[in-house]
């Protein structure tokens, strides 16, 4: 289950985002990792991305994933998210798992698809370091149409990164540079 954590102050630059460390208790964390290890992943590649993706996990009936969905969607946590990001409401939630291996990446994009309002990523790779790559990079958009990398977040094990999806929420997953697998459970809250 989710630990009794709260969202601290949301950072506003370059767009609203927050990192909630130590998100799940140890038992739930182990169960979620085991559940994800038992899934089938398909390799996807284009000029914009290279990674392994699971099927959509939103409707899969699995005890550990059910608990995680309940934790991310429970009333108190939704209230915490809506207050922190100053959004009026959150409706459905979706999720999938992604594995990035050496050479994999996801180039800058803004996540504006359908009615997404808040993006989240639960990081499940122990001991990921800056030298490994795989950082969540945040960009500041400029009026002239260019952008500038302003923040790199190294995914800490059992941390939940969240950000508001908007026309300025440009971000990427930097290339994995070593022989490590970056496992992330990612999804979106919708309006």
From TrEMBL:
Cofactors per UniProt? L-ascorbate
Entry keyword set: Dioxygenase, Iron, Metal-binding, Oxidoreductase
Instruction: Give GO BP annotations, semicolon-separated.
Output: regulation of translational termination
What SMART domains does the database record attribute to this sequence? P4Hc
| Residues in Fe2OG dioxygenase domain copies | 89-191
Q: Which domain of life is it from?
A: Archaea
Q: Which Pfam families match?
A: 2OG-FeII_Oxy_4
The keyword Glycoprotein belongs to this UniProt entry's keyword annotation: no
**Which GO cellular component does the record give, naming just one?**
cytoplasm
> What PANTHER family does the record point to?
HISTONE ACETYLTRANSFERASE COMPLEX, PROLYL 3-HYDROXYLASE OGFOD1
Name of the protein this chain belongs to:
Fe2OG dioxygenase domain-containing protein
Q: What is the lineage of its organism?
A: Archaea, Methanobacteriati, Thermoplasmatota, Thermoplasmata, Candidatus Thermoprofundales
